[in-house]
């Protein structure tokens, strides 16, 4: 156990370093240390703070990892209302706004223009330089306290830089889910056959209201700040406020511009209408503000919005074209997606030839027919979609679309589960796109991470008959690959090296890569952690799988079905013989105490001071063993709120000691 004085000093030193590295990475895009080195410093800090909780500050970098569970979000009244802005889609109305400003001031003025980010408005409250509260906009007068979740957003400073700051101020901005992260989440959800997130804005909003901040931390939200507010702040213009936020270490998008007149404002609007697609998030317009704060005060407010600011919104770009044909794509899981093939049309800077139709229900909803004139928009500026049919141009005698009944790739009759919108091809092991999709899924970075293998290479390997499943990859020879079109000595060696390196990939990644239906990355990690190796998992029955935290009936049945298939068992054996990791490598446990030495504990319910995974880690650090099922071998059931009654009843019948979260804390603190 470390000396208290030394621990206090080291905690302060680690906190300062981590705040600095975090600032350099998120505000200056500079990585001064590797991710591994950063994680090791953070791990050391967390361990010290657990040993000496009296030295843990509210703005500690350890808050970034989350783990706090918030059952109910408190309502907070905004000290300064977060008013909405008046909107316009018309440049004529913008000119009228300018005339009203000129009339109201009767003196020279300038504008400050910013992008209108499509995210979730947030107000960050700082006292003596530290973040004390984060509140959503709500209805403009009051919002929800989401402080624990906001602390996980790495671009939000927990402690501001420098020392020249007021005792209290607010920084307001927009929380968003970067488009790249949104797409990555949807790819993972698709692999787990979960409903896709509708758009980045809704996803950001939903994430901020999640109860478990550890889950929020994994979503990688970001935040742009655009307002520095409070009472008697030493600034005379909005621009000075922005510069102050930058000096404090806030993430301010470098896309703003000060404009001398309305003509420069129009130029800014036109410029970003073309450049907006290159941004990491969506924008839906431009915010124009009178720059001078005394002039803002002079112009004042209406009942709903300031007279000194307005939002110019871009019209959603749409185009009209003709539906030439509907084709059908088969994905890795066998899901069949109809695709609209369009007469090429220019839309949002690109030529659009295709649009997703999602499923048979969408075709029926639109009453879509081949030859129809259709209206096309870019949903979220990314995926083209058909929004309507121009019935006035429909050809006489056109016929409704008959959705296909057989797989377009292998001819197998399609199935559609009751209550689901999607049709599936059940020929998992004989349908070419499903086979190639399974190999691509296995080779991806989050799974086996096989470098130098892409869709084109997989297609070539399949067409040559060299690969029909993932185990075949490990039988490939130099001659097999070298004879493929486009391959030479170096590229052949690179691919073989990538396949060889995949044998070092952790078991949980390989398990995800197997492509078991409904087993995404997170589920694979939980199953690997619980069962330790592939043999234990293969032998598990439905009841044992259900006992695993967060494993539901659908996942459990899918895992059971997978390991019932003898071809899958043979595949696993081949991967074992090839040398892949089929058991989890236990992480070295940091020992903090021995209060739970030799005891087996079950954790159930929701906790106030611990996240679910955090409390398990604390148990291990104090010598205990975490199990999920109640049995006569269990010593203690740590009971949180909303614990299932069945577990409690079983524990009582078996004489298992049931303790509360507070009793658990007392037990480990007495150590």
UniProtKB/TrEMBL annotation:
Gene3D superfamilies: 5' to 3' exonuclease, C-terminal subdomain, 6.20.10.30, BRCT domain, DNA ligase/mRNA capping enzyme, Helix hairpin bin, Nucleic acid-binding proteins. Keywords: DNA damage, DNA repair, DNA replication, Ligase, Magnesium, Manganese, Metal-binding, NAD, Zinc. CDD domains: LIGANc. InterPro entries: BRCT_dom, BRCT_dom_sf, DisA/LigA_HHH, DNA_ligase, DNA_ligase_AS, DNA_ligase_CS, DNAligase_adenylation, DNAligase_N. One of its GO terms (biological process) is DNA repair. It catalyses: NAD(+) + (deoxyribonucleotide)n-3'-hydroxyl + 5'-phospho-(deoxyribonucleotide)m = (deoxyribonucleotide)n+m + AMP + beta-nicotinamide D-nucleotide. Residues 591-671 form the BRCT domain. The active site is at residue 116. NAD(+) binds at residues 35-39, 84-85, 114, 137, 174, 289, 313. It comes from the Bacteria. It is an enzyme of class 6 (ligase). GO terms for cellular component: cytosol. Belongs to the NAD-dependent DNA ligase family. LigA subfamily. PANTHER family: CHROMOSOME TRANSMISSION FIDELITY FACTOR 18 (PTHR23389), DNA LIGASE (PTHR23389:SF9). This is DNA ligase. It comes from Marivirga aurantiaca.
